[in-house]
Amino acid sequence: MLLDGYLRCIQGEATPLCSKCKTQMAFFAQIDSEDETSIMWGDGGLVYFFCCQ
Q1: Are 28 and 6 in contact (CB under 8 A)?
Q2: What share of the chain is helix, strand, coil (3-state, %, to 5)?
Q3: CB 48: neighbour CB atoms within 10 A?
Q4: DSSP tag of 15
């Protein structure tokens, strides 16, 4: 399963490498901080999810 969208990097792109096959992982999803729902990652950050193709 792959969600559609675009990666929004806060401090520059840093796409990780897969620890098993050593290739660049694909962007899967991100969760943004949201004051109104009390979801806060650090100081207003984002959580990124990647998967190996």
Answers
A1: no
A2: 5, 30, 60
A3: 19
A4: P
Mapping DSSP to helix (H, G, I), strand (E, B) and coil, where does residue 37 land?
A: helix
Rounded to 5 degrees, what angle do the CA atoms 44, 49, 53 make?
A: 160
- pLDDT, tens digit, for every residue of 2-53? 456 677 777 777 789 999 999 999 888 887 777 667 777 666 677 888 999 8
Measured CA to CA, the distance from residue 28 to residue 4 in angstroms comes to: 8
- Residue 32: C-alpha distances to residues 6, 9, 22, 40, 41 (Å): 13, 11, 28, 8, 8
